[in-house]
Amino acid sequence: MNWHLISKHIEQATGNAFKIISAQALSGGDINAAYHLKSADQSYFIKLNSSDLITMFEAEFVGLQEIAYTDTIAVPHPIVYGKTDHQAFLVLEYIEFSRASKVSDKLLGQQLALLHQKCQGYYGWSRNNTIGITLQINTPQQNWQSFWRDNRLVFQLNLAVKNGYDGRLQTLGEQLCNDMAALFAGHAVQASLLHGDLWAGNAAVDKQGQPVIFDPACYYGDREADIAMTELFGGFSDDFYASYQQVWPLDEGYKTRKNLYNLYHILNHLNMFGGGYLKQAENIMAQLIAEIR
Ligand code: ADP
Q1: Using CA of residue 49, residue 52, residue 55, residue 58, what is the dihedral sign?
Q2: pTM above threshold 0.70
Q3: Residue 16: what are its φ and ψ, rounded to 5°?
Q4: Candidate list 41, 52, 197, 222, residue with the active-site label
Q5: How many angstroms is it from 80 CA to the middle of ligand 1?
Q6: Is 166 one of the annotated active-site residues of the chain?
Q7: Do 34 and 28 form a contact (C-beta atoms < 8 A)?
Q8: 189-217 tens-digit pLDDT
Q9: Which protein residues are within 6 Å of ligand 1, measured from CB?
Q10: Domains of the chain and CATH, by start
């Protein structure tokens, strides 16, 4: 680890001297090596990966900036990203976490709804990013349904072909993509700023009791996609959902569309990990097709 070079980048970005007194390896990340880097009076969270993954850190940096600008929900302040000889690095504010409470759950729901009220005139984003380790295409489009179909479902289905998953998965996928318009009846989709990868492992609470979200895969799209993902692996409380709905109630039909949205993450898990995700993806698609009829 070239801590010396990383500390020089931190000094340049912050304008303050930074003399490292400790670099502690942290566990918990899925993709990157993580460290807690400290001087006598400053503290940073560092992610490291191979240097060819610099664009992944760049997109995370810009995504955190974009959420921070909205002033709706806390994120770790992004400090700097760059490359050493062999590695890419991302430096963020280090946040000490505390336990979630009823109050922080409610705040998270309210603040996420306020984030979602920050809208754009297109679906997509200024750059591509990654979902897990998979490329996520964000080329802007004016039509949400075709954005979701082409950049999310078809992209993952094509990747699945390359990974050897053809046959029933592809037949069902094609049918669903042809028929999915029916699921959107009565639902006017706003282009909301989304976290994009909102599972319970990417939300926490700081020492002041404020919710914090991190590790985003931002783009502008249907807010239901973020809410659906909170339900995919669980871990969000009834207080969270109730306070979200108080600020901005979800449209009718969400309960069906949430499966269309979570299908994307299941296909991504299939492409990353294989195994049981194949049956799960096929079942979701078969069920959605049956509901459309
Ligand atoms: P990865 O990109 O490898 O999945 P994450 O961004 O999810 O990494 O971070 C891994 C873990 O590190 C998180 O689960 C969280 O516990 C902790 N973490 C993330 N960001 C910060 C931060 N800014 N300050 C302190 N701890 C953090």
Answers
A1: positive
A2: yes
A3: -120, 145
A4: 197
A5: 16
A6: no
A7: yes
A8: 999 999 999 999 999 999 999 999 999 99
A9: 26, 28-32, 34, 45, 76, 92-95, 201-202, 214-215
A10: 3-94 (3.30.200.20), 98-292 (3.90.1200.10)
